[in-house]
Amino acid sequence: MKIDQQREARFRRTVRRLTIETRNVRSDFAARHVWYAWLADGGSTSNLFLRGAGFALQSDLMIRLIRVLDVGRTTSSFWYLHQCGLSTAGDGIDFEKLREFSMKLKSVRDKTFVHIDKKGVFDPGKYYEEAGINDLHLANVIDQVWTVLCRLNFSYGEPPGNLDNQTLPSLCQDFGRDLLRLVNR
């Protein structure tokens, strides 16, 4: 049927788009994680570009993750794929916790990250604290979404990209090595 073909085309295109977004989320997470770990270990720099890049990584990570996990009914997000049915691609994934995380992310998005809430303007950090989002939560969510997307891509015969088979800790190691090369110049 025509509707099924349209739905299949949208589903596949959503998988492709979310794969690109989540690939960038993984890189942003690894680079940001390494940057803040380096600073926590006593690293410092007067390089304004590197300082700005650290803030930019945080913003890019958040907006891409917000886009991937958008709970809106009219978006082709991860939740659209879930609604369509993931077959075995969703095996072992805790969708309840992912949905809970998505709602926390939406609160941060609506109150301070994308919009400036009238009440929240006095204490924007409050919404991040209330959401309780930390690197462990971020890594877990990113890994679960990535697992589903990789399974879907495999089922469509799509070849993985260069860094797609690396774990998040492995990406962090590679980014850490490259950061040290950069700051030790």
Describe the structure.
The chain is mainly α. It has helices at residues 2-40, 48-68, 78-84, 95-113, 125-131, 135-155, 168-183. Helix 1 (2-40) runs antiparallel to helix 2 (48-68), helix 2 (48-68) crosses helix 4 (95-113) and helix 4 packs antiparallel against helix 5 (125-131).
In DSSP terms, counting alpha (H) and pi (I) runs of 4 or more, how many helices? 7
Number of domains: 1
Helices and strands: which structural class?
mainly alpha
In this structure, how is the largest beta sheet organized? none
List how many beta strands DSSP finds: 0
How much strand content do the residues show?
under 5%
- What is the typical, i.e. mean, pLDDT? 90
Low-pLDDT parts are none
Cα-to-Cα separation, first versus last residue: 60 Å
Question: Which sequence of SSEs, written as H and E, runs from N to C?
Answer: HHHHHHH
Radius of gyration: 18 Å
User: Percentage of helical residues?
Assistant: over 70%
Characterize the overall form: globular
